[in-house]
Every structure is written in C-alpha cells, then in structure tokens.
Amino acid sequence: MAQRGQIAMPRSGEAARSGARLRHLLDGLTHHLFSPIDTASIAVFRMLFGAIMVWEVWRYFAYGWIDSHLIGPELFFSYPGFHWVKPWPGTGMYWHFAALGVLAVLIAIGLFYRVAMALFLVGFTHVFLIDQARYLNHFYLVALMAFLMLFVPAARIWSVDSLFARRGRQAQVPTWSLIILCAQMEIMYLYAGLMKIDRDWLRLEPLGTWLAGNAELPLIGPLLLNDAVVAAAAYGSIALHLLGAPLLLFKATRLWTFLVYCVFHGLNALFWNIGIFPWFTIAATLLFFPPDWPRRLLGRTATAWTAPLPWPPYARTPSPLMRGAVTACVGAWIALQVAIPLRFLAYPGFVSWHEQGHQFSWQMMLRDKDGMAVFLIRDPDSGRSWLAEPSEYLTERQVRTMVGRPEMLRLFAHHLERIWRDRHSTGNVAVHALTAVSLNGRPSRPLVDPERDLTEIAFSMRPADWIEDFGNEPLPPREERWPDDFEDALERLVADHAASAMNVGNPG
C-alpha cells in the first residue's frame, strides 16, 4: 500500500502542475486578447466596408437586379429552416435596398454605428436567404464580417459618433477586436487553398476552360491557351492561399504577400464577373498590417485628429467573468468557422457533383456544370402524365443554377406538386426529374435518380440516396471534354420514362 501511495503522489503533483500550466496559458491568452491596440486600422476597414456596400447597393439599382432577382421570379429556393424569408410585396424590395444603402453610408461615416450595423446585418442576411440560386461566397463572407463588426468597437475614432461621445474619443480597442476579424480572413484564405487540392483542379479544370474563354484579351489572351500558364495559375492559387495566408501574420513577409494578393484579386476582377469580392477581400486583408498603419501612412501630416490618444482613464477593466466569456466566444467562433466547411467530408462521393456540404465551405471556382432538365409529372389516379419545362416557371439564372444542384431540383419538384394541386385539382402527383448534367467537361449523366418521386423526399442532412453517383468518373481527354450531347441524353431519358404515358404534353 505504501508503494502505491508513493507512486500516486507524483502523478497527482504532475496533474496539478499541468493544470497550473493550462491556467497560466489561458490567463496569458485572456490578457493578450484584452490588451489595448490602436483602433485606426479597424476604423479604416469600417469606412471601406460601408463604401463597398454602398457600391453594391448601387449595382442592384443600376443593373435592375432588384426586379430580375428578387421581385420577378415566381419561385424562390429557400434555405432549410428559412422558408419564411420572402421578398417584400410590391415595391418593398426597392425600399429595402434603399435602406441598405443609407445604413451603409451610416456605417462608413460612423453615425449610430452599432444600430446601423445591426440593421444592415439583418437586411443583408434577409436578401441573402431569399434564394439559394443566388448563393455566392462573397455574400456569405460579407454576412460573417458584418456579424463580427457588430461586436467590434469600430467607430471609436474617425466617426461622427466619436465627435459627440460624452467621454471623448477612445483611440484604442481590445486586441480581440482585430484578432477575430483576421482569424475569419485566415480561415477563408486557407480553405480556399485546401479545397483546391481537388482532382479536377489539379488537372486544370474548370480553370483551363474558363481562361480559354478570355483568349480574346489583348496581350495576355493567347497566353491563356497555354497549359503551362494555366498550370501556373491553378497550382499558384493553391500556394498563394496555403502559404500566403500564414505569411500575412509575419512582418517581414506581410507587405509582399499583400501586394501579391492585390495582383491576384485584380486578375480575378479582370477575368471573372465576381462583383465586390476582390475589393472587399483586399480591404479586409489590410487588417493584417499593424493596427496603427493608417497613422504611419499619414506620417508627417498627422494632426490632433489623427494622432494616437492614450487609453482613456475612464475605460473600465472588464470583470474576470466578462473576460472569460469573451475569450470563450472568440474561441467558439473560430472553432465553428473551422468546422462548418468540413461538412462535406461526411458525404461519400465527389462534393462538386452531389453538392452536399458544398455551400458555406469556401469551395470556390471548383466546378462548372452545364446541362438540361425537364420534369415528368404523373397522376396515378387518372394515369395521365405531363412534361414540365423549368423555364416556364423560373428565371434563366435559376434554371441554369438548379440544373446542377440536387437540392434545388427537389425543391422545384415540390413546387410543381403544389401547382398541380392548386391549378389542376389533382390529388397526389409524382414528380420525377429527368436530367443530363456535365461536370467540368465529363459526359452528361443523370444527376438524380429519374425513377424517384422527388415529392416523397424531405430535406435531410444524411447522405442522399436519390442522387446518382457519377461524380467519380475520371475526366476524359481534353479533346473529348464538354460534349454537346445534352439534348440527345435528355431525349433518351424522356423516351425511356414517358413513352408509356397515356398523355404526354406540356399543360401550360
């Protein structure tokens, strides 16, 4: 017994020392998160955030997107759990975007900042959630950064709010304010690189096809047809994100890495129609520079308005409970953002084909899907059947997006079922999707099982057994890619599944 006691004592002491080291580490982390830093860089990002959002709102008015994307469509493909999010009736969406523009201006100038950011977040997220057909990674990034900016004290200087602050201007903020924003950008950049370690991307698709579409550009156009150039772009983008994102954290490499990112985002803006994403990302990447970089940039012209101010004597030190809560929230947010993009690993097969776990995972520019679809509607009571063309119910953009996304095909099948009940006074009908889809130049294949009645399938996060497993097919040789056989493949499917129907036709 004595020997056992002698052995247990060191173990107990080691556990105590480990616990003490862990507490010391957590105390040091908490102390660092709440150490004061200059708020200048966050204030500049606030102004750039607001200005870029004003520009985005203007684009919606200038290009007629409010009407074409948010008022005109008959159906909107809601996200799971958000079926209640709908466009406002009448001219409501125009007023909605006008309000977003005003709120973006208030954010930029720092007037009623917290209220303006909270309302902007709600209004922007409302637009984002209306239709899956309009999902873009940069909309998701804007929503995430807006949520974080709601908690970050970004209007302590260089804002209208600071001019009227009862206790004067506060030129410093706790370090966690900057860390959480930079962490979000690091996660996005790293996943953008990791997700490109993809079998198609490594074989230069779909990048090679897209770059070839820009071959008419002066000077650089002919280079885009060169495999070596395409390979440099494909593999270089992986290296840029996986190496560049960490290099942003070091003073010696930060500026050069930032300049490379500026070139990269500038080329993206030149080649692809991706809106505000390059400029928003450049603005957010400025956060990696020292917090006082705007004052350093102003240098000799610094005035009382731009000069650093001491940490205000009236600033209260947060209680240990508050410090612990903020530390836990920062850690939980980072852990959540790391975990969400990994959802696709729970699904067998090629995520670019089956799409499960594709959204919210920073899988950017990895798939190019083309194809066609029609829907076969059967009335088991009367024995009648019809073929429904999606273009009669959806916008061109919605049709183009839906063809390659199984969940949207399922939602549209349920929509057709409701139409037939309401307009044709039929009972239960079966709706089958007949699809011919090509992924990154492969031969066209059915995306979903044409034998399955999609109206019997409810949303589920489990692997879908109604999605066909053609994603694992290897890429054919380049000269055989992108076959123009969609119509033939679809005609064969229609013949196989509708030939025996008593009444085949489009009811209008």
Characterization of this structure:
It is built from 19 helices and five strands. It has helices spanning 2-33, 40-62, 65-70, 92-109, 113-130, 137-151, 160-163, 176-194, 199-202, 207-212, 227-247, 251-271, 277-285, 293-298, 320-339, 351-354, 396-402, 406-424, 486-498; strands at residues 36-38, 172-174, 369-378, 385-388, 430-439. The radius of gyration is 27 Å and the shape is globular. The chain folds into two domains: 32-301 and 318-344, no CATH class; 368-498, no CATH class. The N and C termini lie far apart (89 Å). Helices cover 52% and strands 6% of the residues.
Topology:
Elements (H helix, E strand, L loop, with lengths): L1 H32 L2 E3 L1 H23 L2 H6 L21 H18 L3 H18 L6 H15 L8 H4 L8 E3 L1 H19 L4 H4 L4 H6 L14 H21 L3 H21 L5 H9 L7 H6 L21 H20 L11 H4 L14 E10 L6 E4 L7 H7 L3 H19 L5 E10 L46 H13 L10
Antiparallel strand pairs: 1-2, 3-4, 3-5
Tally of strands: 5
Q: What fraction of residues sit in β-strands?
A: 5-15%
**Fraction of residues in helices?**
40-55%
What is the residue-mean pLDDT, rounded to a whole number? 87
What's the overall geometry? globular
| N→C terminal distance | 89 Å
Tell me about the biggest sheet? Answer: 3 strands, antiparallel
Structural class, by secondary structure, is mainly alpha
Total helical elements? 19
Please state the CA-atom Rg, rounded to the nearest Å: 27 Å
- SSE sequence, one letter per element: HEHHHHHHEHHHHHHHHHEEHHEH
Count of separate structural domains: 2
Q: How do the strands of the widest beta sheet line up side by side? A: 4-3-5
User: Low-confidence runs (pLDDT<50, min 5 residues)?
Assistant: 1-9, 300-305, 310-314, 500-508
